[in-house]
Predict the structure.
Amino acid sequence: MGLIPWALVPPLVLLVIMPIETIMIQAKITAEYESHYKVTVTASDDPNFLVGAYTVSKRNKRTLKRLGITFPPETPKELPKLPGLVEQAKNFGKAAIRHAKKGFPPASDEVIQERFKICVSNHCGQFLPDKRNPEKKGRCALCGCFLINNRATFKNKLQWAEESCPRNYWFPVSPGEKKDG
């Protein structure tokens, strides 16, 4: 019997012939939204080796258990409330006047991304993710400002260089400055 060219061998046969190394995986939730989790799966012995990143519905408990993620019984979490419309208008008006007085200085894209990442981490417990697009938009429940992960709109407090977080998680920057803080 002669040698078979590798191009003619079906992939399944190659899997049987080739030795496969088994790796242990570790899954962790990297972000939580109203209806789903962002789950990152890495190799247990090397957390820098990314196996995959997945979006998993909160209702899909079986997949979460297979990944080794268990939760205590869920208690309904009350979301923070936005300030009233008059208070929101007052907060936005003050910020817009400050922005105009400084000459409308923009923050860099890098600063916008960093600020949004800080807000989404929700250390203060006041970030309200957008129901339709939680990875890109949200609101601050302290001041009512829109938090948008790009330069799409004027009413985005993250892109105004002179603005800061009401809880001091991020600070004003000089226009053109690359990193926040």
Observations:
- The two ends are 70 Å apart (CA to CA).
- The CA atoms of residues 6 and 13 lie 10 Å apart.
- The chain has four helices and six strands.
